[in-house]
Specification:
single chain; about 270 residues; alpha/beta; inorganic pyrophosphatase (n-terminal core); Diaminopimelate Epimerase, Chain A, domain 1; 3 domains; 5-stranded mixed beta sheet; 3-stranded parallel beta sheet; 10 helices; 10 strands; about 20% strand; globular
Length: about 270
């Protein structure tokens, strides 16, 4: 940049793959990115560079973790099954009727997060909010949810990496770095042939990123339980948290469908 006068310069990753551009303005500008955190408040789950951004708000329904701010901000954290329930009610509290499309998206998110109101995280507020949104969107909740789960749980043509990262979150519990992914399915038989490849992928990731433990919950929406695939040196945490005997790389957890309410809290308790 000192020797040339181009308007902008390419940025590449370790494999020389183009990922963006940078200009002199980017280097000298003191303006911080303005960020609102949605559905999380943990540094490990946030975008890279969050510490250099100006945090305006946090809207969430998870445990309160390690994000810090230099000044007071609007922080809304509620015990509901979906952050979209909070967002929808912010609309209603301000006298704003969401569009048909936005109402449909918010309703779909609530149904997904609460497994059509079957999840232990689901509350009366979630159900009432979803019904109000469904009315605006003009959809039948039962029919829509069944079609959505049928389409959303299809794993056809997906690689182990794509399946694993569908819904993956990283947690720091005490001295432990733990990753927990979750896949909702209506057909667990479809995953049988993929388990070996999934465990191999998880094992490589665990070593490459120095995780103490990685879990992948294969959640059966119909039977309302999860098979947990796991790798890592500290897998005994699972045994202690759920009071179960572990197989080589998997264990079935009956009734466990919520990572937020039924997996992270018992793991946290064991770590503490």
């Amino acid at each position: 940049m000192l020797q040339t006068r181009f308007r902008s310069y390419p940025v590449v990753d370790d494999n020389n793959k183009f990922i963006g551009t940078i200009s002199r303005y980017h280097l000298i500008s003191q303006k911080k990115k303005k960020v609102i955190l949605m559905d999380h408040n943990e540094r490990a789950q946030s975008v890279h560079g969050i510490d250099e951004a100006e945090l305006l708000e946090i809207i969430d329904h998870h445990r309160i973790a390690d994000i810090q701010t230099g000044k007071p901000i609007y922080f809304r954290n509620e015990i509901v099954g979906s952050t979209s329930t909070i967002v929808a009610n912010i609309y209603f509290e301000n006298g704003i009727r969401p569009s048909k499309q936005i109402a449909g998206i918010l309703c779909a998110a609530i149904l997904s997060d609460t497994l059509k109101f079957k999840s232990p995280t689901c509350t009366y507020i979630d159900k009432m909010t979803a019904e109000k949104l469904a009315e605006i969107a003009g959809i039948d909740i039962e029919k829509f949810a069944d079609e959505m789960f049928k389409a959303g749980t299809s794993l056809s043509g997906k690689t182990p990496e794509e399946i694993f990262y569908q819904d993956f979150k990283e947690f720091t519990l005490g001295k432990y770095k733990i990753g927990v992914g979750q896949v909702n399915t209506m057909d667990t038989d479809a995953l049988k042939d993929l388990k070996k490849d999934l465990i191999s992928f998880m094992d490589n990731l665990c070593k490459a990123k120095n995780y103490n433990l990685i879990m992948l919950l294969l959640t059966d929406i119909i039977k309302e339980g999860s098979e947990a695939l796991f790798v890592g040196e500290d897998k005994e945490l699972i045994s202690k948290a759920f009071n179960v005997q572990l197989g080589e790389n998997s264990v079935y957890l009956p009734g466990v469908v919520s990572r937020k309410k039924q997996v992270i809290p018992p793991l946290s308790a064991v770590v503490e």
